[in-house]
Structure formats: structure tokens, C-alpha cells
Amino acid sequence: MKIISTAVLLGITLLAIPFFTYYFGTALGVIEWKAIHTLIWVAIGFIVYCFIVGELTQNNSQVDKLWSIIPVIYLWIIAYYSDFSPRLILMAVMVTLWGIRLTTNFAMKGAYHWRFWAGEEDYRWQILRQKPELNPKWKWILFNLLFICGYQNTLILLFTLPSVIALQKVNTPLGITDYIAAGLMFIFITMEMVADIQQWNFQSKKRAMIREGVNLTPDYEKGFLDRGLWAYSRHPNYFAEQIIWVCFYLFSVAASGQWFNWSISGCLLLILLFQGSSSFSEEISSGKYPAYKVYQQQVSRFFPFFRIRRS
Hints:
globular, 311 residues, single chain
């Protein structure tokens, strides 16, 4: 399974980080290690929480609900360790903007509930739960612990670690690369927001028409959105999300003066995760909507190179 190969790559990456820390940059100091230890303990707490609550409630979207919140916590922890240096404040503010947008999007989909453990579960977990590879139940429990809770929480930690490089090089003043990184993050956060609004409006109208017994027009009858940003990319929100964290990595480049450092592992693993996640989503969509296969042939998965050809 792709998920297993991804998890193996994560393990290799975690083992490789000390090597790259030594050979590609200055070794971390006392403050940086203190900050990392704090983040690790917080991450362990989230892993345990998500696993226990997910198993007790049979709602495995606990990590999904926290995905947009945890990085914000991590960034402000690192900002604290830096005595709120300008670069770390800028990084924390940009991640906070990202978190507000994504949390709002999750809330619109019903992910949050006054009973914090409840809320809408991601439909993909429901489908995965039925896979023969993940039955009997003990296999699903292990998958929940190692991938849903363990891997994803570790990945969240990894793609926020450029902040540790910024902490290490706290005396490096803000420069043009920092402002470019922040500007690009803002542009792609906006792109995500537009893509999500377009998808929300389309799905809401489609559901309303079905509920009211109205005959669906051709655009809605095919079942999926292929207009707006979705005419240029099958996953414009996924595309923007990946670019956001690559841009976030640029802050570590600005701080260290090195184009390559060990904190790049997080955004690379995130890109790998989106390959598998989008493939699984498209497998579901092509099974539900006959026209989706044509859409796949006409429009790029991520990069907005091609527009749907309409007669």
C-alpha cells in the first residue's frame, strides 16, 4: 500500500534528520533543542489524545480537526523561545492566517461540535475502514495509531520545523527572501480560500437542487466542479497547500543563507502525502461520476497548466 511506503519513508527521514543537521548547517544549540523537546512532548500529547478519542468515539477525524490548529501552537511556542524575534513573529502570523482559513473551512463542513470529540468524519476514513487490507479490526486500530494519529501528527511537526532554523539564526535580520515568502504564502492562502468557496457554493447548490427535487442542469448533473479555479487544476486547494509550506521553508533559507537544510523534509513529505491522498480521492470520484475520467484527461492534477476544453 502507498500508505505503508509513505510511513517507511517518514521513518527514514526521521533517522536522517540528525545526519543532515550535522552535515548541512550548524548543529543545533541548547535553546533550539529545548524548543524541539517542548514540541515533541506537545506532539506526543496530541497523538495520544487523537488515538484515544478516535477509538472511543469511532470518529477518526480528530487529527483532521486539529490539523489547522496545531501548527499555530507550534509557531507561537518557537516565537516565545526566540523572545518574539521579528522573523518568528512574521512566520507565526502567516501560519495563524493559514490556520484561521483552514479552521473556518473545516467548521463550514461540520467538523466541529460543542462536544469536541464529535463532528463530521472525513468520508475517506469511512471508506478506508471497509478495505479488506485493514480488516479485521485490530489492523484498523494499528493503522489509526501509526498512520492517522502517529504519522500525521509527526508530519505536522516536521513541516513547521523551518521555524527552528529561524530560531537558530535569530540574529539574522529580515530580508527580501522573508518578504517574498510571506507574500507568496498570502497569495496561495487566498487561492485556497477562493477554491474552497467555489467548491462550497457548487456542492451547496447541488444538494439544494437534489433536496428540492429540481432537475439538475448539466453542470450539476455530472456531480463535480470543473469551473473557476477547478477548470485549471483538479485540486487547486491541494496545489496551494503544498506551495504554502514550500514557501514557509523559504524562511529557513532566509535565516540560514542556505538553500538546502534538514528542515526541508517536512514540506517534501507533505507533498508525498498529497500524492497519495489525491489519488485516493480521485479513485472515489471516478467511481461515483462517469465524467470524472474525462476531466482527469483534460485538466492537470495540481499544476494549473491546462484549462478544460469546452465545445
